[in-house]
C-alpha cells in the first residue's frame, strides 16, 4: 500500500470504536489471569443478579421481538423491497447457506450432539412429563424461533438502513438515528457503538471455548496425536487461515465456503441418520418435540418460575436469549447486507425457513440419535456424563457407537472447522465495516483492514486457551453485555418503524416503488 492510500485509509477509519473496546477486553483478560478467583466471583454475582432480578426483561424482549418479526412480515411493511434491483443479489440457496453458517452454526452443531443430556435431570423436565418428550423439546425452543427472531428483525432494520435509505455508516448507532437524531453523532452514538463492538469482541473471543476441545479430542482419537494446548492452537490457526483466505476474496469467497460446509453438514446428518440405525425413532421423536414446542410456546416463553422451584428459566432460557442477543451485533448486519433485492417479508420468512430448518434438522437427527442410545439401553449416555462431567467425552462415546467411527469423527471435525471459518468470515466483514466512519452498502472494506480483523479475532481465543477461568469469565462478560444490547435493540426497532412509516407515507396509494420515492422524484423533475 502506497503512502497516499495509507493516509487516506487512516482518515476513513473510526479509531475510537476500533481500539477502545479492544483495550477494554485486553484489560479484562489480564485481570482474569491475575485475579482468577476474585474476578470469577464478581462476575458470577453480577450475572446472577441480572438473571434473577431482571429475568422478565430478557423473556419479554425475546417474545416481543418474535411477535415484532411476524408483524414486519405480514403488515404493510413486508412489501418494502431492500434494494432497488430487479431480483435478489444472491440465489435462495446461496443466501440461505450464508445466513445459516454466518450465525451460530458451529455452536448449533455442538449442542445438537448433547444438549438433551443437560436437561434430562432437571426437576422442571420431570414436572413437564418424561425426559423422552421434553429433553428433546427444549433444545428446539432454545435454538428456535425466538433466537432467530433477534437476527431477523435486526437484519431487516439494517437492510432498510443500508439498501433503502442508503446510509453510509454501517454501525449500530446509525440504525438509531430516526429516534435519537443528531445525538447519534455525539457521545450517545459513540457509547452505543462502543458497547456493540465490546460485545462483539467478548462473544467472539469465547465462542471457540465450546468447540476447540471437541475438535482437539476428535483429531487426537483419529491420529493418535496427544491432546495438548499446541494441538488446539494448531486447529485455531487452520481455521484462521481458511477464513482469512476466503474473506480476503470478499463475498464470493464467503459464498463458496458457506455452500461447501453446508454439503459437509448434510453429509454428517445422513451419516448419523442412516449409519446409526435409529431413523424411525429419531424422526418420530423430533415430530413429537416440534408439536410440544408449538403447543406450549407461549407458556415456555413467559415462564419465570417466580417461586424459584427449579430456576430453570434463569439457568437456561434467559442465558440463551442473552447469548443470542450478544451475537446480534454482527450477524444481522451480514444478513441485512446479503438480503439486497428481497422484500422484508421474504427476508423474515425466508430467514426462518433456512434458519429453523437447519437448526431443527441438526438437533432432531444428532440429538435424538444419542437419546435413542439412552432410552433403548444401548449406551448409558447420562451415566457417562454424570461420571465424567465432560460433554466432550460423552460425545466421543456417542460417536464410537456409529459404524466407521473414525471416519465420522473426521467428518465432524471438518464440518465444525468449516462452520467456524464461515461464521468468522461474516464477523470479519462486519467488524471491518464497523471500523469505518462511513462506508457505502455496496462497498467492501480495504483488504488490509479485513486482514487486521481476521488476525485480531483469532488472537484472543489463542491467548485464552491457557486460562479456562478467563474463557468462562469472558463468556459471562458477554452475557452481561446483553443487558444494554437489549435496550439498543429496542431503540433500533422503534427507529425502523418510525423511518419505514415515513417512507411508506411518501409512497402514493401504499404502492412500494422499488427503493425510490417516486413521488419526490416526480416533484423534483
From TrEMBL:
<keyword id="KW-1133">Transmembrane helix</keyword>
<keyword id="KW-0472">Membrane</keyword>
<feature type="transmembrane region" description="Helical">
    <location>
        <begin position="12"/>
        <end position="35"/>
    </location>
</feature>
<dbReference type="Pfam" id="PF02028">
    <property type="entry name" value="BCCT"/>
</dbReference>
<feature type="transmembrane region" description="Helical">
    <location>
        <begin position="191"/>
        <end position="211"/>
    </location>
</feature>
<feature type="transmembrane region" description="Helical">
    <location>
        <begin position="349"/>
        <end position="371"/>
    </location>
</feature>
<comment type="similarity">
    <text>Belongs to the BCCT transporter (TC 2.A.15) family.</text>
</comment>
<feature type="transmembrane region" description="Helical">
    <location>
        <begin position="140"/>
        <end position="162"/>
    </location>
</feature>
<feature type="transmembrane region" description="Helical">
    <location>
        <begin position="231"/>
        <end position="250"/>
    </location>
</feature>
<protein>
    <submittedName>
        <fullName>BCCT family betaine/carnitine transporter</fullName>
    </submittedName>
</protein>
<keyword id="KW-0813">Transport</keyword>
<feature type="transmembrane region" description="Helical">
    <location>
        <begin position="409"/>
        <end position="431"/>
    </location>
</feature>
<feature type="transmembrane region" description="Helical">
    <location>
        <begin position="95"/>
        <end position="120"/>
    </location>
</feature>
<feature type="transmembrane region" description="Helical">
    <location>
        <begin position="451"/>
        <end position="467"/>
    </location>
</feature>
<dbReference type="GO" id="GO:0022857">
    <property type="term" value="F:transmembrane transporter activity"/>
</dbReference>
<feature type="transmembrane region" description="Helical">
    <location>
        <begin position="257"/>
        <end position="274"/>
    </location>
</feature>
<dbReference type="InterPro" id="IPR000060">
    <property type="entry name" value="BCCT_transptr"/>
</dbReference>
<feature type="transmembrane region" description="Helical">
    <location>
        <begin position="318"/>
        <end position="337"/>
    </location>
</feature>
<feature type="transmembrane region" description="Helical">
    <location>
        <begin position="55"/>
        <end position="74"/>
    </location>
</feature>
<keyword id="KW-1003">Cell membrane</keyword>
<feature type="transmembrane region" description="Helical">
    <location>
        <begin position="479"/>
        <end position="497"/>
    </location>
</feature>
<dbReference type="GO" id="GO:0005886">
    <property type="term" value="C:plasma membrane"/>
</dbReference>
<keyword id="KW-0812">Transmembrane</keyword>
Amino acid at each position: 500500500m502506497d503512502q497516499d492510500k495509507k493516509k487516506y485509509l487512516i482518515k476513513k477509519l473510526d479509531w475510537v470504536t476500533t481500539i477502545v473496546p479492544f483495550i477494554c477486553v485486553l484489560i479484562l483478560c489480564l485481570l482474569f489471569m491475575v485475579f482468577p478467583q476474585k474476578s470469577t466471583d464478581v462476575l458470577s454475582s453480577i450475572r446472577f443478579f441480572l438473571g434473577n432480578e431482571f429475568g422478565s426483561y430478557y423473556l419479554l424482549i425475546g417474545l416481543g421481538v418474535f411477535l415484532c418479526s411476524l408483524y414486519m412480515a405480514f403488515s404493510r411493511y413486508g412489501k418494502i423491497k431492500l434494494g432497488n434491483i430487479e431480483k435478489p443479489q444472491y440465489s435462495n440457496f446461496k443466501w440461505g447457506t450464508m445466513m445459516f453458517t454466518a450465525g451460530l452454526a458451529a455452536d448449533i452443531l455442538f449442542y445438537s450432539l448433547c444438549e438433551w443430556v443437560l436437561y434430562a435431570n432437571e426437576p422442571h423436565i420431570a414436572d413437564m412429563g418424561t425426559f423422552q418428550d421434553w429433553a428433546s423439546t427444549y433444545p428446539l425452543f432454545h435454538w428456535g424461533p425466538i433466537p432467530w427472531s433477534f437476527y431477523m428483525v435486526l437484519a431487516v432494520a439494517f437492510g432498510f438502513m443500508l439498501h433503502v435509505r442508503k446510509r453510509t455508516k454501517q454501525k449500530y448507532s446509525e440504525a438509531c438515528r430516526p429516534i435519537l437524531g443528531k445525538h447519534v453523532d455525539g457521545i450517545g452514538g459513540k457509547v452505543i457503538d462502543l458497547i456493540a463492538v465490546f460485545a462483539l469482541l467478548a462473544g467472539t473471543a469465547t465462542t471457540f471455548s465450546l468447540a476447540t476441545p471437541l475438535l482437539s479430542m476428535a483429531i487426537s482419537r483419529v491420529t493418535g496425536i496427544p491432546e495438548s494446548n499446541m494441538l488446539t492452537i494448531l486447529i485455531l490457526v487452520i481455521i484462521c487461515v481458511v477464513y482469512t483466505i476466503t474473506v480476503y476474496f470478499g463475498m464470493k469467497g464467503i459464498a463458496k465456503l458457506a455452500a461447501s460446509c453446508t454439503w459437509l453438514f448434510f453429509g454428517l446428518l445422513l451419516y448419523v441418520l442412516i449409519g446409526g440405525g435409529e431413523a424411525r425413532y429419531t424422526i418420530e421423536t423430533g415430530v413429537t418435540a416440534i408439536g410440544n414446542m408449538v403447543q406450549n410456546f407461549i407458556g415456555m416463553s413467559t415462564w419465570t418460575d417466580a417461586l424459584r422451584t427449579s430456576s430453570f428459566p434463569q439457568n437456561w432460557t434467559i442465558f440463551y436469549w442473552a447469548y443470542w442477543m450478544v451475537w446480534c451485533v454482527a450477524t444481522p448486519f451480514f444478513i441485512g447486507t446479503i438480503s439486497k433485492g428481497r422484500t422484508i417479508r421474504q427476508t423474515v420468512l425466508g430467514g426462518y425457513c433456512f434458519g429453523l430448518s437447519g437448526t431443527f434438522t441438526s438437533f432432531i437427527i444428532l440429538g435424538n440419535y444419542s437419546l435413542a442410545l439412552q432410552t433403548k439401553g444401548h449406551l448409558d449416555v447420562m451415566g457417562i456424563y454424570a461420571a465424567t462431567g465432560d460433554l466432550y467425552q460423552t460425545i466421543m462415546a456417542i460417536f464410537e457407537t456409529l459404524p466407521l467411527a473414525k471416519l465420522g469423527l473426521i467428518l465432524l471435525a471438518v464440518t465444525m472447522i468449516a462452520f467456524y471459518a464461515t461464521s468468522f468470515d461474516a464477523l470479519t466483514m462486519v467488524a471491518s465495516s464497523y471500523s469505518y466512519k462511513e462506508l457505502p452498502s455496496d462497498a467492501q472494506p480495504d483488504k488490509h483492514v479485513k486482514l487486521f480483523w481476521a488476525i485480531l479475532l483469532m488472537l484472543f481465543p489463542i491467548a485464552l486457551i491457557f486460562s479456562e477461568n478467563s474463557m468462562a469469565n469472558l463468556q459471562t462478560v458477554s452475557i452481561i453485555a446483553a443487558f444494554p444490547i437489549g435496550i439498543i435493540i429496542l431503540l433500533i426497532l422503534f427507529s425502523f418503524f418510525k423511518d419505514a412509516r415515513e417512507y411508506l407515507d411518501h409512497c402514493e396509494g401504499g404502492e412500494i416503488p422499488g427503493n425510490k420515492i417516486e413521488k419526490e422524484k416526480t416533484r423534483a423533475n
